[in-house]
Amino acid sequence: MIYTTTYESPLGKLFLAAENEALLGLWIQGQKYFPARLFPEGAGERNPAEKDCGILAQARIWLDQYFAGARPKPEQLKLAPGRASEILPAGSEFRRQVWKLLLEIPYGEVLTYGELARRLAGRRGSSSMSAQAVGGAVGHNPLSIIIPCHRVVGADGSLTGYAGGLEKKRWLLQLEGYIPGNK
Hints:
Layout: E1 2-9, E2 12-19, E3 22-28, H1 54-67, H2 93-102, E4 111-112, H3 113-124, H4 131-139, E5 152-153, H5 166-175
Parallel strand pairs: 4-5
Antiparallel strand pairs: 1-2, 2-3
Helix pairs in contact: 2-4, 3-4
């Protein structure tokens, strides 16, 4: 059974889904690739028995810490991005490899899509990899914020391509201290 809940964040409402004590997804209200079947009309909790799913409580604590300016580690949570479920599609092996690389980007730092592509190519024993293909996988990250796709920037350092919206990407990078500004 998939359990869902919402979380009121400084960015707006976040939607979380879990199954078998693993976090499947975290989406920002209004973002691209939002699983509308899982959250009909973005209306909130499909299964309010969140107390039966400890990972959602753990995720809320993680988010509380993150938004308070702490640096909680994603490894504190059992993550299952791209695991197929009754409603969510499976993530391809390629996408899961990209999402794993995203977890390696340190808090408050960024990488370019090109650098991610070079790192993935090296791990796969290839001489090159398409930055556009990597960008597509980054954009379909089902665990926004926790798997830090907001830490990926364009070749010139510009803020590009965030499913939750560039203003939210900027806000997250300001929170982490990468971009000067108010927290």
